[in-house]
Amino acid sequence: MPATRPTEGTHRSTAEVIAKARQLHQQALEVGHSGRYTREGRLLRRALALLDTVGPTDDVDWVKARTRILITLAFAEAESATLARGISLLAELRPSVEALTDEHAKAELGAAIDGNHAGMLIRSGRYEESIPLLDSAIAHNERHIELGPQDRVRLMDSMIASLANRGQAYLEMGRIEQAFVNLNMAITIGMDNDLPMRVAYIRHALGDLHLRTGDIPEALHYYQQAERDYLELGPFMLPRLRIDQSQALISAGLADEVAKNLDDVLPQMQLERVQQDLAEAELMRATAALMEDNLSLGRKLANSARRRFKRRGSDAWAAVAALVGLRVDTALAWRGARIPASLPARASQLADELTSVRLMDEAAIARTLAARLEVRRGNLSEASALLGPLSRPGSLTSIEQRMLLRLTRAELAAALGNRRQAFAQARAGLTDLGRARDRMGGLELVSATAIHGQELGDLAVRLVLDGGDKAATARRMFGWLEQTRAQMYRYEPVSGIEDQQLVELIAEIRNLGYALRQAKLDGRPTAKLRSRYAERQRAAMRLGWHAASRWGKPRPVADVVEVLAHLGSKALVSFAVSGGSLLAVVLAQGRVRLVRLGSAAKASENAMRLHADLNAMAPDHLPEPLFEAISASARKHAAALDAQLLRPLTGLTGELVIIPTGALYAVPWGALDSLRSRPVVVAPSATAWLAASRGSFPDGHTALVRGPGLTAAIGEIDKLAAHYDKATLLAGSDATSSRVLEALDGAALVHIAAHGEHEADNALFSRLELVDGALFAHELARLRKPPRQVVLAACELALNRIRPGDEALGFAGALLAGGVGTVVAAASRVGDLPAAGAMDDYHRALGAGASPAVALAEAVSADPLRRPFVCLGS
């Protein structure tokens, strides 16, 4: 039957069908963004079937609509089925597009096919293969620009996508300069052409770039900007963003934040079945579990991720998942009596597999793990052979990889008897870690980074201990302890930091907290307020990682000579743990000595039991028999601590500076008989103590603050004012967060009687309750002149939150890190009457000219178990 010329009516029918097919295509795209690929596929096939009712035809619009629908179907197949299936569908399209005579359509569709093909490869870790395709896509777009596009917005969108993907591919290949060039070109085009979703995506990519270069705060800054845009424009991108944010947090050592970040989105991702994103999220969560020592969960998730990658045909990603699984199995084997021969062999095999897919950094990690396992097995020549070919870490090598390599080389040197080389590797590794820490932003990031150096620091301490107990060993031990502990206190605080967005967010959280407190008092429902409060707090926490949180330059680590010189007649005791043993480095009377103190577990148990007893006996009106039973237990544990920690340290006179470790931060030292009536200062490190002792502090005003809800006893700040010639009183409606911050700025002394609370999940949200809501530790960075001394009279806010590396956090920690010279706070709960008595005695002595440590020693000695206050800082 001869072909007939289409009638005008048929033309209208074709246009209507194309419009309807495009509508179905748009619906499919929206469904696909949520990962519902089965539903997306049904919509796409309906659109194709609809087009087939009026085709095949040479109508350009029909060809363009059909080709774009098939491109989307190919991408969906690559995501939900296999990469090979998606690529084969694209390959089937190329001949028909090449045959087009319409140059506009040919350029437009050629760019779309090549760009999507490259995107599939990038998603599967095949970055180098994607570059020629992206070059081709960009060339098609440039040709289309020359022709004069009929739809400029769509063309610019396509150009931005190709430039951004090429930047992403270059980034993954370690070609940072090319990545910067492409991403900056893309974001400029996006802004010039008012394409906000593309701009958001490129901000996301710039976050990836800064993550790769080690600038974690800047990466988190870009991720936060992208998140703000995604929430408004494209929530379907949030799971992908959570994965990349989590990678940044892993680099910063915040495994607990990664766990919360991903546990929130993994269930939804499992429902949506976005296989690549789900597998990457599982892999990141497995890494966090490994860092948190939850090895069973780490193994389960790493294996699940590897299976998903394999099903997709993402061999490179599957090898990365296998590497995380290997790290989990290595950690498990490390606890056993011996390392099976199969494990280093598996690591070496995996290194070869990773090399074959051009993942050179990951291959180096696998080979380093194989070497470390061989060192543990005693096969030192095999370990040397494995480490020998490894190149020096490059500028983009992650801190985790650097530390593993340094640790393995140090362990090999130690096993070979080359202590000098072992120490050199440990020192170089901690220097690497210091450089990474120097680039961090807020207190949370700085403190969390310590986890990466924990094993290297432990090795150095063990090597020092092998040198015996002579003076030279003690001096070396002191130096290593100062290099490995409480590093966040080394940084000079930068005063007056104020980010308006963060200030507004904190104010919102304060108002929500106040509303929540009132709702509880009134017996009203609180679920919505709690949810909003938690959501806003997490938003502020993420913002605080990069906003208004830069620290100054790091101070040099204190050495023995300068500490001894500054101590004078005082003594300093720095506690540490190596293996299961507790030890102390004692600096006194110009000498340094090392004292071994027995079981660390025993000391920790007595410290925590004493802490629990003091909490239990804090209420003012306990029944006498109960009070006697608890106080007897407390005295027993205090005596045990005294016998283990202090009595072996003979010859100590004068004021004592104590550097605790772990659970010893919870000890109220004045409760130990050897220290009764003796001035004691607790500091996170000798470096921090020295900095606080040498600090220049204002000779400003005295302020006495009373928060809401206090009993008459602890709230009697008028009585305390009698000890001073002039003091500013803030109580009732005057005790607001803004007035208290103002009082803190430039003060010589601020006494705060207010309820307070540690925030275990985020130390910077530890708070004091004031009349208008909470004053958060976050806000202390706004102080231009940190006060000389702060007294926290009515709450347990001493240094009780301890991260790896003895990074002591909390409200008191934020004060000290922010430049306050001395903080007086309770190490455990304290009753109102004992607190009031202690504070009256303390201020009387202080007003008479005693130093804080002397005044507190006198005040605490009247009732040591019921007045568990400590003097922190200097």
TrEMBL record:
It comes from the Bacteria. InterPro entries: CHAT_dom, TPR-like_helical_dom_sf. Gene3D superfamilies: Tetratricopeptide repeat domain. It holds the Pfam family CHAT. Residues 637-860 form the CHAT domain. This is CHAT domain-containing protein.
